[in-house]
C-alpha cells in the first residue's frame, strides 16, 4: 500500500510541475502574440553587382498595440568576391512603416565593428515581401543607409534607396489587422 501511495504522489507531483511550467509559459507567449499589432521579420542576404559588396542582415521589428515599437537589425557587410570583412552594426529600431508589402525601418546604431559609422548614428533600410511560395519572385532589400535625421524621415516619407533581390533569406511583413 505504501508503494502505491508513493507512486501516486510522484505522478501527482510530476503533473503539478508540468502545469506550473508549461501552462504559464503558453499564457505568456499568447499574451505577447496578442500584444503585436504588426511586424517585419526575416533575413536578407544579397550582393550589389556594381560595387561587389555583400550585405547580410537579420531584422525583427514589432509594433505593439499601444503604438510602441521594439526590435533590432544586425548588419554584416563583406566584399562579395573575397569575403573580406568590411563592417558590422547592431541597430535598435525606433520606427517603421508598412505600406502593403513594403516596410521602411529606421533605427539608432548601438554597436559598430569596422567602418566609420559612429554609435548613435541614425540608420534605415527598406524591405519588400514578395510572398512565401516557391513560384514567387525573390523578396527585395536595400543596403542600409546612414545619415543624420534619417531614421524618422525614412519611416515617415521614405528616403531613396536601391532595392536588390535576395540571393538567400526571406522577409515577412505582417501588416496591422492580420
Quick overview:
This protein is an alpha+beta fold. The protein contains 2 helices and 10 strands, in the order αββββββββαββ.
Provide a descriptive summary of the structure in words:
The structure is a single chain. By secondary structure, this protein is α+β, with helices and mostly antiparallel strands. The protein has helices spanning 2-35, 150-157, and strands at residues 36-48, 53-64, 69-79, 85-99, 102-114, 122-128, 140-141, 145-146, 164-165, 168-174. It has one domain (37-174). The protein has two helices and ten strands. Strand 5 and strand 6 form a beta hairpin. The longest helix has 34 residues, at 2-35.
Our measurement of the CA-to-CA distance between the termini, rounded to an integer number of angstroms, reads 57 Å
Question: Helix coverage percent of residues?
Answer: 10-25%
- Main β-sheet: number of strands, strand sense, barrel status? 10 strands, antiparallel
Would you identify the regions where 5 or more consecutive residues have pLDDT less than 50? 2-32
- The count of DSSP E runs of length 2 or more, i.e. the number of strands, is 10
Oligomeric description of these chains: single chain
What's the helix count? 2
Secondary-structure-based class equals: alpha+beta
Beta-strand fraction estimate: over 45%
Number of domains: 1
Shape: globular
Task: State mean pLDDT (0 to 100 scale).
Answer: 84
Rounded Rg: 22 Å
Q: Please write the string of helix (H) and strand (E) elements.
A: HEEEEEEEEHEE
